[in-house]
Structures are given as C-alpha cells and as structure tokens.
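Fold it.
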Amino acid sequence: MIEKIEYKSKFDGTLQPAMCQPARGTEPRPLMVALHTWSFTYEANCDVYSQVAEQYNWHMIFPHFRGPNWTPEACGSDLVVSDLEDAVAYMKANYQVDPSKIYLVGGSGGGHCSLLMAGRRPDLWTAVSAWCPISDIALWHKQCLNHVKVYAGHIEKACGGNPAESETALREAQLRSPLSWLPNAIDNVTVDINTGIHDGHTGSVPIGQAIRAFNILADEKDRISEEDIAYMEANEKVPEHLAAKEGDPAFGPHTVYFRRQSKRVRLTLFEGGHDILPVVSAEWLARQTKGKPADWSTGKAVDSTSAELSK
C-alpha cells in the first residue's frame, strides 16, 4: 500500500516527504526511485510509477526532492542530490532491498534529475531510465524564451538570474545541468535515454537535449552530429542515414525511428512527444543487475501506453 512518509535530510536536518510503496513479502526486492516532473511535487502523478511497482513487486519511493524547479533549493541543487541519497538510505534501512537492483527513473524534469544523479552518484544505481530529459539548463532557458517562457522564468528564479546575462547564474545553470556531471557516469552506470520525436513541438523539451546527453556517454564514433540534431529538431523526423533498422516490440505502436547503443548508454527516438512509457521503462530496468553486463536486447511486448508528461 502506498503511503506518505518522511525521512531526515543529512544536509540540513529537515524532514523530507515522499510517497512510499513497499514490495510484498519478506525477501529482498528491487527498489525503484521514481522522480516527479519539473513543476510538480511528490504528491502528483505518483500513480504512474505505483502501478508499475505493484506489477513487478518492487519497492518504490517517490521523493519530493525540494519540489518544483523554480527555487534555488530545487532544480538539481546539492540539496536535491543529498535528498535522493537519503531516499535510498531510508528504503534500505526500513525494507529488504536487493542491492544489485536499485533503479532510477524519471521523465521531463524527472528525466533531468535522473541524468544528473547518474553523473553525481553513478555508484548508487544499477541502471537509470531517463525520458524526454533536460540536459543543459542554460540552453533550455534560451529555447524556452522562444517557446514556453514560463520555464525560462523558473530557471532564472532557481539560478539567481538570466544565464545569458549573468556569470553567476550561468555557473549555477551549469552546476545544475547533467552535461556537467555525466562524464562521471561513463562506463560506471547503465543509462537508457528515450524521447518522442515530436518533443519540442508538441512538448517543451527539444530532442537535442536527450541526444547531447547520449553523446557525452557514448564512444566518439557513435555520437550524433550537431547537423543531424538540428535536422531532427526542425523536421521532427530522423534522416535516412540514421533510421532504425529494426523496431522494439516493447514500444508497441510507438514506432522506434532511431536507436543506438554505445558503451553503457542507449538512445531511442520513438513516435511520441513529451512522453514516458512507464511499463516499457520497467521492462528494461527489470533485466539489469549490478555487476553483470547490461542487457540491451529488444523487449517483450508489454503495455506500451504512454503517459504524457505535464511540466
């Protein structure tokens, strides 16, 4: 049964809220740390992950991690990192957690924080599943000025100014950006990045944000060029020379247009917008075990219903 809990922050001593759903039984079970989106809290949209945890009989915690990303305390701050470390520690202390199967998942703002935590604490996770993520806060601020200005305002509040005009704000944006930390994750944690091809048009995060995160983690020969990124963002389609040669049954009707795996990262561009496919994510995570090679095989057919993510 899902319930509200609180755990103590080692950073500032405050009690931090979360939604918690223990697995059934007494045997050690996987732990899924699931993250809320950009403008929301631990009280919103938890059901997407609760249903998956129930289906797979996983422990699940849905932390607050300082709430919506329009304050300096939120938006990838050191407090956020500490709170998520504490969330894992709380679950380990109170439930039988399988240490070889600790998973992190999130979409949109949760995708941003998933990638950030992959770089800040790669040792903590067995695997990370990030959907329609933001990887470069300063760039997204610029993109939002021409698209969804409200998020540019959020960034300015979190960073203490406009990153394009203030060196201090730019530095804050860089510290809160996954791109600054992802080099720490190279070869140290398995990361799966997914985004809908129409995001940035029907959604708020251009797909280059996901692609550039992949580029950091991938071997140099496997990186996607800026020219190809610009083409895909402008045209909402994949150029012929990059088109996927096979699909993935797990994605069901969401056609896979592009997929590339390199080192310990994979990128998938699929038919969709600002979406997460929660059961598809879980199906992949369930095959990952710490200390064993990543399983990049195509998934089995599952419930591929998308959850369109509000910011």
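The longest strand covers residues 97-107.
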